[in-house]
Prior knowledge:
Layout: E1 2-7, H1 10-16, H2 20-28, E2 32-37, E3 50-51, E4 61-62, H3 64-77, E5 82-92, H4 95-102, E6 106-111, E7 116-117, H5 119-125, E8 128-131, H6 141-152, H7 162-166, E9 185-186, E10 189-190, H8 193-196, H9 200-218, H10 220-232, H11 235-243
Parallel strand pairs: 1-2, 1-6, 4-7, 5-6, 5-8
Antiparallel strand pairs: 3-4, 9-10
Amino acid sequence: MRIDVVAVIPEIIHCFLQYSIPKRAIQKGVVQVVVHDLRNYGLGKYRQIDDYPYGGGGGMVLRPEPYARLLDQLRAQRTYDEIIMLSPAGELLAQPLVNELSLKRNLILLCGHYKGVDQRVIDLFVSREISIGDYVLSGGELAACILLDAVIRLVPGAVGNEESVLTDSFQDDLLAPPVYTRPAEFRGLRVPDVLLSGDHKKIAQWRWEQAIARTKARRPDLYQRFLQRMEASPLQQQQQQRRKSSSNH
Ligand code: ADE
């Protein structure tokens, strides 16, 4: 999989790619991430990328030409499945969309900045606008990092234990159950006995029940979706899926 990221502050993306799963996935060649500095495609001696908004108002708007120059080049080299603009006006990012994107071959992520990006960039090039939440960031770079992280960890080969990503929270509309490690007792709090029992069937059952109880208490919206899905597919099937797992996040 190849992901091109177009940024006003490329250092944020480079920094993020130096750690953990994204770093290892790149080293292994499972995913290729190419970061582009929008300013390299800016106008004139000062490589201008933004300008005042028509109609007035505060803040600067990113001009269309730098994006167009770069995107024309990239699109001449390969076909992209999606050109995504990170924007608070986009569809909200959730696991099903992450799953879908992890199956693509070539993606472009565009990070906006300042007051926004000239609408014609979106009209001409963008196939999808994605928001990471109902709040406004000062730029799209951090949002792009979040999308990159969520997508890259799903690409086959990125994570060692293939099964573990399938048992993440949200993959089955359930929050993950609590996890514990050593010591067995800490400041008067003991690890639930069942986890020390060595009985894998019982452990899986406990995790399943905890996941359901947590979801019901904390995320009634997810719990309703879960219930609807359970009506459509047999309980047994769901339980088996969880039993197979040893890791939960
Ligand atoms: N850029 C600024 N805010 C954003 C958000 N919430 N999601 C995606 N991109 C953004």
